[in-house]
Amino acid sequence: MFNFNNTYSKLSDNFFYHVKPEDFPKSSLIIYNEDLAKELGAQDLDHTEILQYLSGQRLINNEEPISMAYAAHQFGHFVPQLGDGRAMLLGEVVSNGVRRDIQLKGSGQTPFSRNGDGKSALGPVLREYIVSEAMYHLGVPTTRALAAVSTNEPVYRNGAEPGGILTRVAASHIRIGTFQFFAAREDLKSLKELADYTIQRHYPEIKELINDRSGEIYLRLIQEVAKKHAKLVSRWMGLGFIHGVMNTDNMSLSGETIDFGPCAFMDEFQFNKVFSSIDRQGRYNYQNQIPIAQWNLYRFAECLIPLIDNDQNIAIDKVTKTLEDSLKYYDQQWLMTMANKLGISDYDEDTREIITDWLTYLHDHELDFTISFRTLTEDINSFAQFSERIKAKQGEEAQELMNKSNPIYIPRNHQIEKVIDMAYEADFSHFFKMCEMVKEPFLRREEYEEFERAPQKSERVKATFCGT
Ligand code: AMP
Ligand code: MG
C-alpha cells in the first residue's frame, strides 16, 4: 500500500490547487511496474485495487491530490501561468530514505487546464512508459513509469484516439518554471519558501547554509543545479537522445529527465537533428541541447536575484559571476561522456578533436549513432581511419568503459510507432516485448534482434508529436 508522507501540499496555498481525478469507470490496467512498486512499498496491492487508484475511481488514504502551479518560457516566450493542466500529484512516498512523487498524467481537468481536456491519448502514455523506463535502465536520471492504464474512452486530437493515463514517479515535480511562477509575481515570500524547500529536498549538501543570511546559499543552489543539468543533458548527448521540448517547465530541479513528449533517440546521426513537429525553428535540435540548458539556467538564476542581495546591482554581479563560473560544468560533462564512449578516461583537448572528427564522420555518412559506437566497442579496428588515434588515448579499462557507455538497444522510434499502431488495434504484445527489452540495454539477446537494427528507409520516423 502507498504510505503517503506529503510535504508539498503543506506549502502555502498559492503553490497548488486541490483536485479530484475524473472517474474513468471503463478503464483497464495495461501494465503495472512490479519492480518499481516494490521499491515504493506498493507491491501488495491487487490489480483491481491498483486500477481503482490509478484511474480516479478511488482515492488513496482519502488523500486529496494536488495540481501544481508553474510558469515557463515556451520556445523562448514567457508564459506566466501554465501549471498541471492534465496532471495530479497523488502523494509522496518515502522509501529507503528517498522521497518520491506519485503523479497521474491524463486524469482529467484541473484549474490549470485552460482549454485542454486534461486527458491524454494512449500513444504518448505508451511512449513515455517505454522511454522513461529505458532511460532508467541506461543509467540516466529520469522520472519513471509505475503504470499505464487504458481509459477505454476516446480523446479527441486529430480525430478520436483511445485515451490513457500514466502514473509517473519523480524525485519531485519542481521545475525551473515553478520558480518563474513566483518570480513573475514578485512574490518573494513564496519564492524563498520554494527555494528553501527545494534545497531541503534535493540539495542536502548546501543545507547547512540555510541560516546564513548572506544569500550565499542561493548562489550555491545555482551552481548545484548547473552541475545536475550539465550531467543530465550530457548523458542525453551521449545516447543521441533529443528531448524535443526543453522549455523551462520541462527542466526539473531534481535533475531528472522529465516530460517525455515528442522525444526521440536518433538513428542516423545529424548534428542538427529535430523530430518534434512543433519545433519548426529547430530550437531544441540535438546539438542545441547544451546551449539551451545553459539558457534555461540563466532563466532560473534570474528568479533568485531578489533573494541574493537587497541591492539589485550587487545581486546581479554575484549571480553573473556564479553563472560564468558554472557554465564550465556543461563542457566538462559533455567531454567526459563522449570520451568515455570512445573508451578514453584520461581525456584532454586532443580527445575533443577526435570526438569532433568522429561525430563529423558519422554526420557526413549519415551513420547510425548507436550502431556505430557499438561497432567500435566490439572491434576498435572497424573504423580504420579512427582506430589508431583512439587507441593511443585509451587506458587499460577502455573495453569495460566502452561496454557500459555504448548500449546495444535503445527504444527506437519506428519500434515505438509500431507499439502504438498495434496498441490502437488492442494488441499490446509489442509494447510488452519492448518493456522487457529496455531492461538490459547492454546485453545482447537473440529474441530482441529486431530492436538492435536501424530502421529501413521506409520505416524511418521523420516527425514525432506531443499528442497532448
Ligand atoms: P507539456 O507540453 O506537456 O510540457 O505541457 C505544457 C502545458 O500544457 C502544461 O501546462 C500542461 O499541463 C498543459 N497541457 C498539455 N496537455 C494538456 C491537456 N490535454 N489538457 C490540459 N492541459 C494540457
Ligand atoms: Mg511540461
Structural features:
468 residues, 3 domains, six-stranded antiparallel beta sheet, 42% helix, binds adenosine monophosphate
Topology:
Blueprint: E1 16-18, E2 28-32, H1 34-39, H2 47-54, E3 66-68, E4 72-74, E5 77-79, E6 87-95, E7 98-105, E8 120-121, H3 122-137, E9 144-157, E10 159-170, H4 176-184, H5 188-202, H6 216-239, E11 241-242, E12 264-265, H7 289-308, H8 312-326, H9 328-341, H10 349-364, H11 369-378, H12 384-393, H13 398-405, H14 413-423, H15 429-437, H16 449-452
Antiparallel strand pairs: 1-3, 2-9, 4-5, 6-7, 7-10, 8-10, 9-10, 11-12
Helix pairs in contact: 3-14, 4-5, 4-7, 5-7, 6-7, 6-8, 6-9, 7-8, 14-15
The structure holds adenosine monophosphate and magnesium ion (MG).
